[in-house]
Amino acid sequence: MSGVRPIAIRVGLAALALVALWGVWRFTAERWSLLVDRVYTARMLVIRSTPFGWNGTYFEVNANGQLELFARGRRFVFGARASTVPGDDGPIPAFAAEPGDTTSLVLENSLLGWPAPFTLAGTYLSGAPTTWMRHLYYRLSWRKASGAQLAMVWRCEQGWERINGRHNFGFEELIRVEIAPAPQ
């Protein structure tokens, strides 16, 4: 009888430790995911980056009809209007890279997911609930023939639910813009 008691205490402490570890993971997993994302994200897809559509956010069209970006006191000119591409509300203007430019648009995802917060809207009102989340990253790199460079990164959340699988919640935020001028 005396040998059973220490084993029961150890099993109880192990169960308590597992519950505590689950609780810590439940409430800090998104932060851990962001920390891991700073080191590495998994490449999913390389998307054709030019011509690309512009929906009126982040950029402006200059007097020469070129799309340009102003950020942190610097300017980056993408290229001239090339055509239109289909959008949700109809065609949107498309802009193409100038000859000699190198462009890349890469879709990446987080290695770590986290449990989605519980919501009634996702369970009773609209079907299966979203149970897991992860981040998606869209990385645009653009190098002009002159040597000027642009790097932009957007981050959004992607959910998972058992019926439809992965679904995107749209662009949440532009998290990085770096413009390097052409070398002199």
* Shape annotation: elongated
- Tell me the number of strands: 12
Number of helices: 2
Low-pLDDT regions: none
What value does the Rg take, in angstroms?
23 Å
Mean pLDDT: 83
Counting structural domains, the number is 1
Q: CA-to-CA gap between the ends?
A: 84 Å
Structural class: alpha+beta
The largest sheet is: 7 strands, antiparallel
The topology string of helices and strands comes to: HEEEEEEEEHEEEE
User: What share of the residues does DSSP label as strand, in percent?
Assistant: over 45%
Query: Helical proportion?
Result: 10-25%
Give a short overview.
This protein has 184 residues and is α+β, with helices and mostly antiparallel strands.
Architecture overview:
- With 184 residues, the protein is α+β, with helices and mostly antiparallel strands.
- The chain has one domain.
- 23% of the residues lie in helices and 45% in strands.
- It has 2 helices and 12 strands.
- Strands 1, 7, 8, 9, 10, 11 and 12 form a 7-stranded antiparallel sheet that branches. The chain has a 5-stranded antiparallel sheet with strand order 2-6-5-4-3, with no helix packed on it.
- A hairpin with a 3-residue loop joins strand 10 and strand 11.
- The radius of gyration is 23 Å and the shape is elongated.
- The model has no long low-confidence stretch (mean pLDDT 83).
